[in-house]
């Protein structure tokens, strides 16, 4: 199973699908291994079977797969049917799939067709956001910001303050690449003029860039966010009455935190990175919707300015986190912690 998990980690373009790896074993010898490579393409079990020198070698063998095989028609046919067809004798799974389309159904299909199934119930963070989103019916939320030693995230409210060094900046790009959507508010959109792209690596499925605005019709189309063709979602209080680029989608509503997360859950977004300023930070804190916190601490003092989670007229609920982990990034420190369960 360790080999199967090693295979699973090779899947870098699975997007909305979980990372899954598989290994086929017979007479204590590994016959083939494989993983799910790309969203919409063959799953790990099929790739592993295709990697056999001869498909007849599968008869009577055991397949170790990190997650329960699928039993429904999606973008690809059910993996369990192929497992039965080739004559595999036993399937060992790392855990059940929390997706209700799969959960338990794959195991039942295999058992009903005479295949022995063993569930190891392995707890792992390999598909943390995938597991979380199906179990909690919302995306896993990471809040990220850079901060000075005196707790400030911005010196002036109407202009961007540079806080992080280049190493911390690159680390933040990696963090962005591990999420399926990035959210900012209108003030950050206007003041920082960000692209919200992942610029240190090529991604087949870059994160959706989400901007919370009052009126999408007032958005400045010369902003840098429009220089890239990755998806942009505007969450607006008003309908669009103007032509917008093809990669832009507008959602109209009353966009509090609950409604934002409900929309993202409907859109199957499993991991959200909140990069907005103090107002959005405080709104997510007030709603108790911060699961993962990443802070980049820089050795400087502003003396005055805006602090983190500094919303107006809001009483921020206390959210307790686990013991933080620290990592030096040059003269910056990355502080990472997860919410207590």
UniProtKB/TrEMBL annotation:
GO terms for biological process: riboflavin biosynthetic process. Pathway: Cofactor biosynthesis; riboflavin biosynthesis; 5-amino-6-(D-ribitylamino)uracil from GTP: step 2/4; Cofactor biosynthesis; riboflavin biosynthesis; 5-amino-6-(D-ribitylamino)uracil from GTP: step 3/4. Substrate binds at residues 176, 196, 275. Pfam families: dCMP_cyt_deam_1, RibD_C. Its cofactor is Zn(2+). Zn(2+) binds at residues 43, 70, 79. It comes from the Bacteria. NADP(+) binds at residues 146, 188, 192, 199. This is Riboflavin biosynthesis protein RibD. It catalyses: 5-amino-6-(5-phospho-D-ribitylamino)uracil + NADP(+) = 5-amino-6-(5-phospho-D-ribosylamino)uracil + NADPH + H(+); 2,5-diamino-6-hydroxy-4-(5-phosphoribosylamino)-pyrimidine + H2O + H(+) = 5-amino-6-(5-phospho-D-ribosylamino)uracil + NH4(+). Keywords: Hydrolase, Metal-binding, Multifunctional enzyme, NADP, Oxidoreductase, Riboflavin biosynthesis, Zinc. Binds 1 zinc ion. Its EC number is 3.5.4.26, 1.1.1.193. NCBIfam families: eubact_ribD. InterPro entries: APOBEC/CMP_deaminase_Zn-bd (IPR016192), CMP_dCMP_dom (IPR002125), Cytidine_deaminase-like (IPR016193), DHFR-like_dom_sf (IPR024072), Eubact_RibD (IPR004794), RibDG_C (IPR002734), Riboflavin_Biosynth_HTPR (IPR050765).
């Amino acid at each position: 199973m360790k080999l199967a998990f090693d295979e699973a980690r090779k899947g870098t373009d699975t997007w909305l699908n979980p990372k899954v790896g598989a290994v086929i074993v017979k007479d204590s010898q590994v016959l083939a291994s494989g993983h799910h490579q790309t969203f919409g393409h063959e799953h790990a079990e099929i790739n592993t079977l295709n990697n056999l020198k001869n498909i007849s070698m599968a008869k009577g063998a055991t397949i170790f797969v990190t997650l329960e095989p699928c039993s429904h028609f999606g973008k690809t046919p059910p993996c369990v049917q192929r497992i039965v067809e080739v004559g595999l004798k036993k399937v060992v799974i790392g855990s059940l799939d929390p997706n209700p389309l799969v959960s338990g159904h794959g195991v039942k299909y295999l058992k009903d067709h005479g295949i022995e199934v063993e569930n190891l119930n392995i707890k792992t963070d390999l598909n943390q956001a995938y597991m979380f989103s199906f179990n909690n019916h919302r995306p896993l939320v990471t809040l990220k910001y850079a901060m000075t030693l005196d707790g400030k995230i911005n010196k002036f409210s109407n202009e961007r303050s540079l806080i992080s060094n280049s190493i911390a900046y690159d680390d933040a790009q990696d963090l962005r690449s591990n999420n399926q959507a990035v959210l900012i508010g209108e003030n950050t959109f206007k003041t920082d003029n960000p692209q919200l792209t992942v610029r240190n690596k090529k991604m087949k499925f870059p994160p959706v860039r989400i901007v919370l605005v009052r009126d999408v019709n007032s958005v400045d189309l010369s902003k840098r966010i429009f220089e890239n063709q990755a998806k942009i979602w505007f969450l607006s209080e008003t309908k669009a009455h103007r032509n917008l680029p093809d990669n832009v989608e507008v959602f109209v509503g009353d966009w509090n935190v609950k409604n934002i997360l409900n929309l993202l859950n409907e859109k199957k977004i499993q991991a959200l990175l909140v990069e907005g300023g103090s107002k959005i930070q405080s709104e997510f804190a007030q709603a108790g919707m911060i699961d993962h916190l990443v802070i980049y601490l820089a050795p400087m003092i502003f003396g005055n300015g805006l602090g983190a989670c500094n919303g107006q007229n809001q009483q921020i609920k206390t959210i307790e986190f686990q013991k933080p982990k620290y990592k030096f990034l040059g003269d910056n420190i990355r502080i990472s912690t997860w919410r207590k369960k």
